[in-house]
Amino acid sequence: MTRVLATAFVALNLFVGVAQASAPEKLSNPALEARAVALQKQLRCLVCQGESLDESNAPLAADLRVIIREHIAAGESDDAVKRYLVARYGDFILMNPPVERDTILLWFGPAGLILMGTAIAIYVTRRSRHRLMAEGAETLADEGPETGT
Fold it and tell me: Is 43 helix (H, G, I), strand (E, B) or coil?
C-alpha cells in the first residue's frame, strides 16, 4: 500500500511540475504585463520564424518571454529590452527588422527571387517560341513551292 501511495505521489508531482513549467509566468502589474505582451508580439520566435514570441509554443520562446518579463520588472524600457535581445540574437529576432546593410536580404530577397523566376520563365518561353517558329519555317522550306497545273 505504501508503494502505491508513493508512486501516486511521485506521478502527481511530475504532472504538476510539467503543468507549472508550461504555464507562462505573468507579471502582477497589469500595465507591465501589457507591455510585455506588446513587446512579445514585436519579436520573432527564432525556432518557428514565422510566429511572434507571443504566439509560439517553442521552449526557446517561453524562455525569451521570461527574460522579457524579468527585464521589464527590473524597470527597463521596451527599447532597452529590444536592444538586449538584438545584441544577443541579431536583427532577425525583430518582426520588422530595420533596413540596413545586414538586413537587405531579409527585406528584398523574396522580391528578388520572384523577379529572377519571372525573368527565367520569360526567357525560356521566348526561346522555345523562337525555336518552334524556326522549325516551322524549315518545314515550309523543305516542302518547296507547290506547282499547280
Answer: strand
Whether 30 is in a domain gets the answer yes
What residues contact residue 115 under an 8 Å CB cut-off, 6+ apart? Answer: none
CA-wise closest residue to 71 among 46, 36, 20, 21: 36
Owning domain of residue 35: 23-98
Report d(CA 47, CA 58) in Å as an integer.
Answer: 7
Handedness of CA 116, 118, 124, 130 (dihedral sign): negative
CB 72 within 8 A of CB 35: yes
Number of domains in the chain: 2
Q: What is the CATH number of the domain that holds 45?
A: 1.10.8.640
- Report d(CA 54, CA 38) in Å as an integer: 8
The three three-digit cell numbers of residue 144, written as one number: 518547296
Q: Do the domain assignments include residue 10?
A: no
pLDDT tens string 33-44: 999 999 999 999
Does the reported pTM lie above 0.85?
Answer: no
